[in-house]
C-alpha cells in the first residue's frame, strides 16, 4: 500500500514545487491561474514568461466572430517564434453563449481554435478578470468584442488594437513581428 501511495505523492509534491517555483519567478500581472474553456484544467500564465502575448476578448455571436480564423492563422504562423495568443470569451457586450459548451463549440469546432481559450469572464469594470484589470489600467477597457492587446515579452508595453483591426492586418502583423525581435 505504501508503494502505491508513494509515486502519486511524489508527483504531487513535484507539481506543487514547480508551481511555487514558477510563481516566485514571475512578478508581473501574468502570475495568475485561470481555468481553460470547458475544462477543469487551469493554466498559470507565468509559463509564458519572456514571450509576447496577444490577448483578445472574444464572443461567439458577434459580427467579428470570424476573426477566430485569422487569430488561429496567426497562432500557427508565430507560435514557434514565441507569440502566445490568449482568448477570453466575455458576455460584457451580450454576444456570448450562456453555456460554455456552446462557446467551446464555436471556438474549437467551428473555427478550429488551438490557442488557449479561457472560461467566460468579464473584461470590463470591477468584475473584470485580473488580466483585463491590468490591461484596462495600462490602456483602456475594450469598447467591443475582439479588442486585441499585444503585450511585450518584458510586460512593459501594451499596444491596443480595436475590433476593426483584423488579425492579418499590416498594422497588427508588423507589431507582432517587431515584438518577436
Automatic annotation (TrEMBL):
SUPFAM superfamilies membership: Thioredoxin-like
Active-site residues, as the UniProt record annotates them: 62
Molecular-function GO term, any one: peroxidase activity
Entry coiled-coil feature ranges: none
Domain of life assignment: Bacteria
Signal peptide: 1-23
Pfam families from the UniProt entry: GSHPx
InterPro entries in the record: Glutathione_peroxidase (IPR000889), GPX_AS (IPR029759), Thioredoxin-like_sf (IPR036249)
Keywords on record: Oxidoreductase, Peroxidase, Signal
GO BP terms, alphabetized: cellular response to oxidative stress
Family assignment from sequence similarity: Belongs to the glutathione peroxidase family.
Name of the molecule in the record: Glutathione peroxidase
Originating organism: Pseudoalteromonas amylolytica
Amino acid at each position: 500500500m505504501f508503494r502505491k501511495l508513494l509515486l502519486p505523492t511524489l508527483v504531487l509534491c513535484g507539481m506543487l514545487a514547480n508551481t511555487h517555483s514558477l510563481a516566485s519567478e514571475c512578478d508581473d500581472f501574468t502570475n495568475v491561474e485561470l481555468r481553460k474553456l470547458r475544462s477543469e484544467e487551469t493554466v498559470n500564465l507565468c509559463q509564458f514568461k519572456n514571450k509576447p502575448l496577444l490577448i483578445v476578448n472574444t464572443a461567439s455571436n458577434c459580427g467579428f466572430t470570424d476573426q477566430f480564423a485569422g487569430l488561429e492563422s496567426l497562432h500557427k504562423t508565430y507560435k514557434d517564434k514565441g507569440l502566445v495568443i490568449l482568448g477570453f470569451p466575455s458576455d460584457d457586450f451580450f454576444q456570448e453563449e450562456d453555456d460554455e459548451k456552446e462557446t467551446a463549440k464555436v471556438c474549437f469546432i467551428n473555427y478550429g481554435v488551438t490557442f488557449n481559450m479561457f472560461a467566460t469572464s468579464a473584461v470590463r469594470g470591477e468584475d473584470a478578470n485580473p488580466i483585463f484589470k491590468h490591461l484596462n489600467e495600462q490602456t483602456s477597457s475594450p469598447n467591443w468584442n475582439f479588442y486585441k492587446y499585444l503585450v511585450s515579452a518584458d510586460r512593459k508595453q501594451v499596444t491596443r488594437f480595436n475590433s476593426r483591426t483584423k488579425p492579418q492586418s499590416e498594422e497588427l502583423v508588423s507589431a507582432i513581428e517587431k515584438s518577436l525581435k
